[in-house]
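Standup notes, structure subgroup. Blocker cleared on the adenosine monophosphate input:
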Amino acid sequence: MTIDFSAYDDNNVFARIIRGELPSKKLYEDEQVLAFHDIAPQAPVHVLVVPKGRYIAQSDFHENAGEAEIAAFWRAVARICRELEVAERGHRLIANEGSDSGQLVAHFHVHILAGRRLGRLVAEDS
Ligand code: AMP
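Run returned:
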């Protein structure tokens, strides 16, 4: 599947979840942020956190979002980690960007992974 990372696509799956057009298992929501369980979890805890604004990936978000939006996003990530009680045993945050990273959905999101030992940071080339 070829993904166009050059322009924001309003029909990407996370935009549709934010608009309520697709279902999700919501964990947290405020005016600027939504968090929900990943549909194909890679660990006992696998949550996705997304800003509600239209950002393709992390660089777009950090270059173009307002300070308050950026702060709200990362505070929400920290709060969700604490509420999931993964802070003590540890967790991993991942933000894929672009084709080499394997980014599948071109709406900025952070994965929260926890609940087991997560192993090496990256797999060998396949
Ligand atoms: P990435 O490869 O970083 O773009 O990750 C995209 C993630 O979105 C994958 O882990 C998918 O399992 C997840 N995903 C795709 N569609 C949905 C959906 N409808 N609800 C929840 N998670 C989804």
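Discussed briefly. Strands lie at 26-29, 33-37, 45-51, 92-94, 110-114.
Next: hand off to the docking folks.
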